[in-house]
Amino acid sequence: MAIDMSQFFQVFFEETEELLTEKEKLLLAIDVADPSMDDIDAIFRAAHSIKGGAATFGLTDMTEVTHILESLLDKIRKGEMSLTAEHVDVFLSANDILRMLRDGHRDGAAVDQDAVNEVLVRLASLSEKAASQPSLPSTGSNIQSVAAENASLRLFHIGLPEVPARDVEALAAELGLLGAIEQAIGEDGKLVLHLKTSESRDDILAICSFILDPDDLVITESAASAVPEPEASSRNDASDDDRGYGFFDNIELPAIGRTEKPIVLQEGEIHPAPCGDSSSTMATEVKKQVRQSAAKAPVNQESTSIRVNIDKVDQMINLVGELVITQAMIEQRTSMLDSMAYQRLLDSVAQLTRNTRDLQQAVMSIRMMPMDYVFSRFPRMVRDLAGKLGKRVDFITQGAATELDKGLIERIIDPLTHLVRNSVDHGIEMPEARIAAGKSEVGKLTLSATHQGGHIIIEVTDDGGGLNEERILAKARQQGLPVSDNMTDSEIWHLIFAPGFSTAEAVTDVSGRGVGMDVVKRNITAMGGYVEIHSAKGLGTTITIFLPLTLAILDGMSIKVGEEVFILPLGYVAESLQPDPADIKEIAGRGRVVKVRGEYLPLIALYQLFAIEPHFTDPTEGIVVILEAEGNKAALFIDELLGQQHVVVKNLESNYRKVAGISGATIMGDGGVALILDVPSILRSNRQQNSNESGLMAEN
Asked: Which backbone phi and psi does 420 adopt, to 5 degrees?
């Protein structure tokens, strides 16, 4: 039987990212002056798990980094050296290096060996400092002294069955990670391992069960003073090979700089040995595949999640989408039947409709991910950037549990990164400037996410100096952008989204080249969202992003022009009405407008936009739908409203080509295709056209 090892590498790479993210979060939050023992232990376990997994698969470069990292953390948690800000900086740099090495093995990405060597030198330097320092006395911190730690140790005697010497050495090495261990021969002539540790019997069983059948073990406990402490070398000086790492011999490993085919290992080539840490999910899965005895191990807790390839989820969502379309067809065709004669059939169709809707919502929820996936990468970035600029910033996140579709959550990372960097660089002032303005020298930057209807609202808020209206207008005039004295604040703020626009006085490696904000707006618009800006001089700026929860399914209003049916995303629809003749005006340079509660809105005739033969050309005979997007309003003139419904979005560009003013397509209940209108694009195009006409009239 052949075992495809590529799946285990993938699990290891995913698990490594989770561990690195958790470790970075702990390092950023840790109190250097009085570190929590629990946090130090958690950081140590993360480093050890990565080391164990990397060593299992022979990824020696990652093992080398984590080995030194683990040793330093072990000294800190045992009170042999104190944690400093320098340690935190180096540990964070090591995290970056491990990610780079991981990407090199997984994706064939380039690896900066100089950066790797630099971190190794810094880690080694800290290790040398630790070796030259005497053991630290207890100073009241949460890290316990060595003496106090020894007082809480327990002595376990683990009687072993007759097993190969290789397995004994491997087990001894793994148990040695829990404490001091030595081998001896018991009264019955069998091998016994004496383990002095603060861990529990269950922890010992968890490790042993991956190598031996727990039923074959005899574990007893006695006073911790019964056996003298073995030499430290029995725990710390053994090489990775001696500890049993290198789970497989002669296995082809993913190498940096090249793309790998799936790795297949013949079952006859398996060499069982421990994989480094019982908490490693990757290691657990490998061992379950290659050792039958592991199946007998006791299970303390059922797994509450499984790893599924995203392609399988997307396939399931597509199939459910087709099911929704088919259900809509059945519902429409049975709606014309006699309700008395076909009552049972119609009841069944109604039940099918409800079940289909529930299934659709359940499947869509699988793709939803918490915003913490995005938010968690910013504390480190803000810390490094603020330090580089000489600023002090208190970074706060809110609503990290708010969920967004996976496809959108990955695409929002780059826009948010640029906005956060801008807030730190341009928004928040230098400490001395803040003090002079009567503020705290520590600036506040908040990143929040909330649900509102069918949208998610993401806000980036700083308490900095706010946008400078005069400077923005002056720069806009300099670049030839259309500006006027009667522009609203919102219109002025949106000038910063113009390509190449920047008010920075100097170009730095952080910003100032005028690139980024236009890309931010374009990317958010491409996701069906829009941006709003609110700013007050001296008080700060808030940039708000509105996004749909998912691009796969949307609530839409079906409309008709001539014989063509279109879908309006409901999130952009404010209201619909039939205007009076007195409310329709013709304004030079703006075309026709309609008066709605004292406000004149540009009137966009959909039949003119797509060259369709309409039923009505007079707005007073048809319907006007008031649309709002990106802070702008307009009135869309159509023939009639057909109703509101859920629609499954199909990508038009990948199946046909990009069409201006159209964001996608859907299949209706009658089997026909309806195009989904790109409302923000239509409003922008109309506004641009009116601006051009106004400019021509001014020139004439």
From this structure: -65, -45
Could you list the mean pLDDT of each consecutive 10-residue stretch along the chain, which spans 700 residues?
62 86 88 87 87 82 88 85 89 91 87 89 80 48 44 80 77 78 82 85 76 80 56 41 44 47 37 36 41 37 64 84 84 86 91 88 83 88 90 92 85 90 91 92 93 82 89 84 78 81 57 62 82 89 86 82 91 88 81 87 91 90 87 88 82 77 82 85 78 50
Where do the H-state alpha helices sit in 367-460?
372-375, 378-389, 406-411, 413-422, 431-436
Burial of 496 (0-12, 13-18, 19+ CB in 10 A): buried
Dig out the tokens for 484 from the structure.
Answer: 């006027």
In this prediction, residue 235 carries a pLDDT of 38
CA dihedral 387, 388, 392, 394 (to 10 degrees): -70
Strand-pairing partners, residue 594, are 584, 601
Q: Please say whether the structural domain 2-140+258-296 has been given the CATH code 3.40.50.1220.
A: no
For the domain with range 373-548, which CATH number is right: 3.30.565.10, 3.50.50.60, 3.40.190.10, 3.40.50.1980? 3.30.565.10
E-state strands within 606-650: 623-629, 632-638, 640-648
Is the pTM value of this prediction over 0.70? no
- Is the separation of the CB atoms in 116 and 101 below 8 Å? yes
**CATH architecture, domain 153-236:** 2-Layer Sandwich (3.30)
Classify residue 220 as exposed, middle or buried by CB count within 10 Å of its CB (0-12, 13-18, 19+): exposed
**Topology given in CATH for the domain delimited by 553-699:** OB fold (Dihydrolipoamide Acetyltransferase, E2P) (2.40.50)
Domain boundaries, the chain: 2-140+258-296, 153-236, 310-367, 373-548, 553-699
Structure token digits, residue 326: 């088919």
Q: What is the pLDDT of residue 45?
A: 86
For 601, the 3-state DSSP assignment is strand
CA distance linking residue 695 with residue 606, whole number of Å: 24
Distances (CA, A) of 367 to 39, 361, 362, 364, 451: 31, 10, 10, 6, 16
Q: What share of the chain is helix, strand, coil (3-state, %, to 5)?
A: 45, 20, 35
What pLDDT does residue 240 have? 44
| Closest by CA position to 561, among listed 497, 508, 604, 498 | 604
Q: Answer positive or negative: Cα dihedral of 78, 176, 182, 192.
A: positive
Q: Residues 6 or more apart from 307 whose CB is under 8 A from it?
A: 11, 14
DSSP for residue 112: -
| SS3 readout for 472-520 | HHHHHHHCCCCCCCCCCHHHHHHHHHCCCCCCCCCCCCCCCCCCCHHHH
CA 305 to chain centre: 18
